[in-house]
Amino acid sequence: MAPEIKYTKLFIDNEWVDAKSGKTFETYNPHDGSVIAKVAEGDKADIDLAVAAAKRAFHRNSEWRQMDASKRGEILRKFSDLMERDQKYLAELESYNNGMVLAHAKTFIGGAVGTVRYFASCADKVTGETIPADGEVFSYTLRQPIGVCGLILPWNGPIFIFVSKVCTALAAGCTVVVKPAEQTPLTALVLAALLAEAGLPKGVLNVVNGFGPGAGSSLTHHSDVAKVSFTGSVEVGKLIQQASGASNLKRVTLELGGKSPLIIMNDADLNVAVPYAANAVFFHQGQICIAASRLFVQSGIYDKFVEAAVKYAQSIKVGNPADPTTQNGPQIDETMMNKVLGYIEKGKQEGAKLLCGGNRIGTSGYYIQPAVFVNVTDDMTIAREEIFGPVQSILKFDTLDEAIDRANATNYGLAAGIFTTNLNNALQFSKHVEAGTVWVNTYLHFTPQQPFGGFKESGIGRENGLDSLLAYTEVKTVAVALPKKLFIDNEWVDAKSGKTFETYSPHDGSVIARVAEADKEDVDLAVAAAKRAFHRNSEWRRMDASKRGEILYKFSDLVERDQTYLAELESYNNGTVLAHAKTFIGSTVGTVRFFASCADKVTGETIPADGEVFSYTLRQPVGVCALILPWNAPIAMFLSKVCTALAAGCTVVVKPAEQTPLTALVLAALLAEAGLPKGVVNVVTGFGPGAGTSLTHHSDVAKVSFTGSLEVGKLIQQASGASNLKRVTLELGGKSPLIIMNDADLNVAVPYAANAVFFLQGQICIAASRLFVQSGIYDKFVEAAVKYAQSIKVGNPADPTTQNGPQIDETMMNKVLGYIEKGKQEGAKLLCGGHRVGTSGYYIQPAVFANVTDDMTIAKEEIFGPVQSILKFDTLEEAIDRANATNYGLAAGIFTSNLNNALQFSKHVEAGTVWVNTYLHFAPQHPFGGFKESGIGRENGVDSLLAYTEVKTVAVNLPKIV
Fold it and tell me: Do 875 and 901 meet the contact criterion of CB atoms below 8 Å apart?
């Protein structure tokens, strides 16, 4: 039964339309030559419309271009599911329209679904690189989609090639116009409908049926087409290359013809080699570009091989492709059938010996019995030209060197193969044969991960694999002069002393740049600028609170605009995995917008005071604030502290950590771009004993907000007492407990517990570095925790597959390694990891300790590295007591399905943040800070905003009314 023909029109801008000319053409069934349908025939006018639609869809503000790369991947995965749903129909339509044996078509569709899913998974992994360029610049590349792509399909594998080309282009972010082969237009239209059903926006994919001289030529010459990918003949490929040169130098990928050699050595297993060699040239009736149409058989087994090859060829059943017993179907049309029969006649005329087959079968349809020729020489036409039919030409050779020379004596170079048990022969052949794909003891083995394409006239570029994906992108190199000066009063200035210091990349320890080193004199200038900006008559103080919010909103837009650059710079300077840095910045943009919305909501109260007075409070900005940042999350901390202070109306002097000064300077520039008045934000880069101490002791600084170590936090508190009693917010260290109860879901708890201590290489103040696991599940949990930790990939933070990057510097790396040694010495059992990875950079493999007791150093002190210490407990009461037995109190967590346990723990644990069945969940609305020695005050939330204000109480004596 013939499959239903659902679509015959053109697909342009997500609509089914007739050709502008109204013309149609017939498409045929090669089984019997019958007409299947009349299909719209596109030409230049239709191509122009399709390209225009694709160009609109590629506009930088379009839905497609604004879409997250991961969302593109989701659409492709949905498309793969729809293909799988309709697999039977697609296979039947493919077989009906191009004669492929139905069983093969079904297999092809399965492979095509895998290809779609591969490229779906690649969509958000098209990354640029950070580059250690000469000079003091931050240099990186962006890989951006190339634009509108013309994709021209062949007739021999229309579904597979549609999927390969289209999904690669879409994964890269391009838009496309597809021209199917005129012989096989039907499946491309069905696939277009499925992509629309999957949610592809309008104009992203367009399909124009037609002929090469009309639609094809118009597409290849179109000046708005940035790239053409073509699979087909060498002759047409050359025309496309010429069209590129004659138009706009569009990028070209060509997958063209072949005359692929297959070498059978004397030591080959004939029971394996004979079937492979037959399939290599007879599969799909020989209508494959990589057909092994030159079969070189070594002289020692030549006669025996030929005998077996003839027997195998004679066993091949040729017939109706819908018949499940059929092995070979028809040629695509009468023209191709006659061309193949002509080559067979030419072979006989030139002296090759036809041992079997080579005749047309029947008079209906275009069937040829597989042919086997022997006594073939290199100069014969059938040994030189691509036949594209079921013709096996067997040539004799003596030595491997001879075979390689003869194999390479062609203008083609698409594929090659060898059957041998000698590894050296296999390696020599693989090295020296001139072909884009080489198979050893196999043939026709394809996967979507493997690049496929040809040497010489077999093509340009590659299909499949990352090579093909990158070919749909352009590389943009960006070089940014790194801000190296201080930012004071909206100007870039050198340190008064002229001193500078180096900042490094923890990936390899290389110097990134030299940065101005501020000391007391520079801090004095910065504080003076901030004090002027805070004067009651300054532009900043007279500005409406809502206007302050508008500036912060504008700043958030600029951070979002430069998100990629900021993430790459953060990753480059502090080793955060790039994917995590991007996520950080996305969330911190939300933090900026939260505080922007708060700027005009800092209100006082009216008070029903005793007596005949009208009493109220004002909340007024505290004044000049010193904000001292940590190195582990410099962008997030800058935005959190600075935007809170600005929303309250304060002015600020920022001192970044000496390890990570660069992002603060970039953010200062963005604030200036957003319209912040001069002097409101100042950035002084330098060291704690110089710039930091000067700030914390300065009598014109009204408040200090610091994130960092407990030791430095105590010094800042002392500085406040020794100077002007400045207000202090301290977000300090932690030794956070995470409790895993017997009733916890280990599939959830194990990954959360790992992330809670290994995220950012353990360099987070709320790391769950004391993991208390209840005794009933302890052993099972430990086993799963070790397995999870061992799966974590440690490496270059720019690599999209990396999960953990380096420690910040050599000092911290050695400190962490010292704690690991201390743990082993004190009796804890190291189950995995805990060693340095490589010799370049500061990498540590995540460590898991069991048998940890409360008195061990690793259970008491903050490690700030990827070390998971697992302790056993019996009851919740015990766990709470042990969790609280520390001077720290920053965060805590519990995994349990018992609500009462969760509430009891949340109530009694001494920590500023408690997570239940989650960990590391932050929102700008949530106050964050510690109990005990983990700090004073809160970051984020309204609590933090109010901490940047002073409360003024006003009492007005009400006049008595007489």
Answer: no
Q: Do residues 495 and 434 both lie within one domain?
A: no
Query: Which residues are the active-site residues?
Result: 255, 731
Residue 723 confidence (pLDDT): 93
Angstrom distance (rounded) from CA 64 to CA 661: 36
Statement to judge: residues 421 and 494 lie in one domain: no
Closest CA to 304 of 404, 374, 369, 250: 374
CB 748 within 8 A of CB 713: no
pLDDT average, residue stretch 705-716? 94
Claim to verify: residue 292 and residue 380 sit in the same structural domain: yes
Q: What band does 437 get if pLDDT is binned at 50, 70 and 90?
A: very high
What range defines the domain where residue 566 resides? 484-729
Three-class secondary structure of residue 868 per DSSP = strand
Identify the CATH number of the domain in which residue 528 sits: 3.40.605.10
3-state SS, residue 559: helix
Domain end point (choices 673, 696, 729): 729
Q: Are 530 and 679 in contact (CB under 8 A)?
A: yes
User: Of 695, 569, 443, whose CA–CA distance to 131 is shortest?
Assistant: 569
Helix-helix angle 545-561:578-598, to 10 degrees: 170
Q: Sort strands 251-255 and 459-460 into parallel, antiparallel or unpaired.
A: antiparallel
Contact 676, 670 (CB under 8 A): no
Domain assignment present for residue 104? The answer is yes
SS (H, E, C) 24-46: EEEEEECCCCEEEEEEECCCHHH
Structure tokens at 684: 């002084």
DSSP-derived 3-state class of residue 433: coil
Close Cβ partners of 653 (under 8 Å, ≥ 6 residues apart) = 523, 526, 527, 530, 624, 625, 626, 627, 682, 683, 684, 695, 701
3-class secondary-structure state, position 825? helix
Same domain, 685 and 748: no
* Closest C-alpha to 735, from 696, 699, 762, 707: 762
| pLDDT confidence bin for 962, thresholds 50/70/90 | low
Packed helices 158-172 and 102-122: angle between N→C axes, nearest 10 degrees: 0
Residues 370 and 491 in one domain: no
Helix (H) or strand (E) holding 501: strand 500-504
Q: Report pLDDT for 1.
A: 73
CB atoms within 10 A of CB 421: 12
Q: What is the DSSP string of 769-796?
A: -EEEEETTTHHHHHHHHHHHHHT--BS-
- pLDDT of res. 617: 86
pLDDT tens string 286-303: 999 999 999 999 999 999
Residue environment code for 557-595, b if the CB has 16+ CB neighbours within 10 A, otherwise e: ebbeebbbbbbbbbbbbbbbbbbbbbebbeebbebbbbb
Q: Select from 211, 236, 255 the last residue of a domain.
A: 255
Residue-level pLDDT at 584: 87
C-alpha Rg value of the chain to the nearest Å? 36
- How do beta strands 651-655 and 727-731 pair? unpaired
Report which of 148, 246, 159, 160 is spatially closest to residue 205, judged by C-alpha positions: 148
Helices 69-85 + 158-172 axis angle, to 10:
160
Tokens 């209906």 map to which residue?
Answer: 364
Cα-Cα-Cα-Cα dihedral of 438, 443, 444, 449, to 10°?
-50
> Is pLDDT of 927 > 80?
yes
Distance of CA 347 to the CA centre of its chain: 52
Task: Measure the CA–CA gap between 530 and 662, rounded to whole angstroms.
Answer: 21
The DSSP secondary structure of 143-210, one letter per residue, reads: EEE--EEEEE--SSSHHHHHHHHHHHHHHHT-EEEEE--TT--HHHHHHHHHHHHTTPPTTSEEE---
| pLDDT tens for each residue of 530-555 | 999 999 999 999 999 999 999 999 99
